[in-house]
């Protein structure tokens, strides 16, 4: 096992650090920068039908569901096809309205999650085209879908998903662009978006260098009992994922929320004992996020901000700032999630938790 950990203290840390390489693997052969084009073998034969979808329903559980939410933002922005994201467990028991004009995308790292498998079978029975995004090659979900793409993230051992999540988001980004081709985006726009994606792995390597700094921040919050994670737009699902990572492995209660919804509830909880993590990158909602930070500060909440490199103004508002390289909004989730994975990891290890095998959780939930 020590050899498999490759010198890292835990599989989770190894998997976090593997992400730049995994991201390259996910894109390999699929993203062709010279021609600015995409080659997605697993869905090539079905692309026309996928592009004609009346709507797309994404079904998944846990972290894969969070990737699905980012997929919703990406597909709607790029391809202008309406998307709904459903928990597989809810979808399967709701007698969902599905027609053969719908496309269902199921996302699963293991390819064995019972609820996701049942959702896939339900969708097939109702006549939808079902596409899978799985990590484990030859898994049940991968075999039962009509078409699909593998994430090629390699085996993920840590129960808390990290590299599989970023790989899923990259696949969804590529799928969203493929759905836009010849419809909603020009070839030059697609080439530009692909270039931005191709720059992500080196930006992630940069962020990973902050691990020690994040370890120090973790030391100040290791005894917190609650955490709030706030983000907007593409970073709202990242807020959910950051909160999930923390609760899974450190057993600290954490909630993710869209930042603007704070005033409809969580604001009542804010005091000096409630650290708030803001994902405050410079995008169209940046100034709104700043006013949300002010609201937290005026109630004595402690603030950790994930901000864009060069943003010095935010230092005066936040207790701690973790910087990420500048990037366009659609790729930011792939960057902002990295410090949140590291923060959860460091807080959990400082609390003496078994991060690779957290209590009560299973890597793959094959029963209901
Ligand atoms: C479990 C795991 C999570 C995972 C979820 C969905 O809860 O602990 O890490 O996100 O199942 O698993 P899947 O294999 O379908 O992505």
Automatic annotation (TrEMBL):
Keyword Phosphoprotein: no
Signal peptide residue numbers: none
EC number: 2.6.1.16
Domain SIS: 46-185, 217-358
Keyword Transferase included in the entry's annotation: yes
Superkingdom of the source species: Bacteria
Role this protein plays: Catalyzes the first step in hexosamine metabolism, converting fructose-6P into glucosamine-6P using glutamine as a nitrogen source.
Protein name listed in UniProt: Glutamine--fructose-6-phosphate aminotransferase [isomerizing]
Organism, as annotated: Chlorobium limicola
């Amino acid at each position: 096992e020590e050899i498999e950990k490759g010198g890292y203290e835990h599989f989770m840390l190894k998997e976090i650090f593997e992400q730049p390489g995994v991201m390259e693997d996910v894109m390999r052969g699929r993203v062709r920068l010279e021609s600015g084009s995409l080659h997605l073998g697993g869905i090539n034969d079905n692309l026309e039908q996928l592009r004609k979808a009346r709507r797309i329903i994404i079904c998944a559980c846990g972290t894969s569901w969070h990737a699905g939410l980012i997929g919703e933002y990406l597909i709607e922005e790029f391809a202008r096809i309406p998307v709904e994201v459903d928990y597989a467990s809810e979808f399967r028991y709701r007698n969902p309205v599905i027609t053969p004009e719908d496309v269902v995308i199921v996302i699963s790292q293991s390819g064995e999650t019972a609820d996701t498998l049942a959702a896939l079978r339900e969708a097939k029975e109702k006549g939808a085209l079902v596409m899978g995004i799985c990590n484990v090659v030859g898994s049940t979900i991968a075999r039962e879908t009509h078409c699909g793409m593998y994430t090629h993230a390699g085996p993920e051992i840590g129960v808390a998903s990290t590299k599989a999540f970023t790989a899923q988001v990259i696949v969804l980004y590529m799928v969203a662009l493929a759905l836009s081709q010849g419809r909603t985006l020009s070839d030059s726009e697609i080439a530009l978006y692909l270039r931005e994606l191709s720059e992500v792995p080196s930006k992630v390597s940069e962020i990973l260098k902050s691990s020690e700094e994040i370890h120090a921040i973790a030391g100040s919050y290791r005894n917190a009992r609650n955490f709030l994670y706030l983000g907007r737009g593409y970073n709202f699902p990242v807020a959910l994922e950051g909160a999930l990572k923390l609760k899974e492995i450190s057993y600290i209660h954490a909630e993710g929320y869209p930042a603007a919804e704070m005033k409809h509830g969580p604001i009542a909880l804010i005091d000096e004992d409630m650290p708030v993590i803001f994902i405050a990158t410079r995008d169209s909602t940046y100034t709104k996020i700043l006013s949300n930070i002010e609201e937290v500060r005026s109630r004595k909440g402690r603030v950790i901000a994930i901000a864009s490199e060069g943003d010095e103004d935010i230092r005066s508002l936040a207790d701690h700032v973790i910087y990420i390289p500048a990037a366009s909004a659609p790729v930011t989730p792939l960057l902002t999630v990295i410090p949140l994975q590291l923060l959860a990891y460091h807080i959990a290890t400082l609390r003496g938790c078994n991060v690779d095998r957290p209590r009560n959780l299973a890597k793959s939930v094959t029963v209901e």
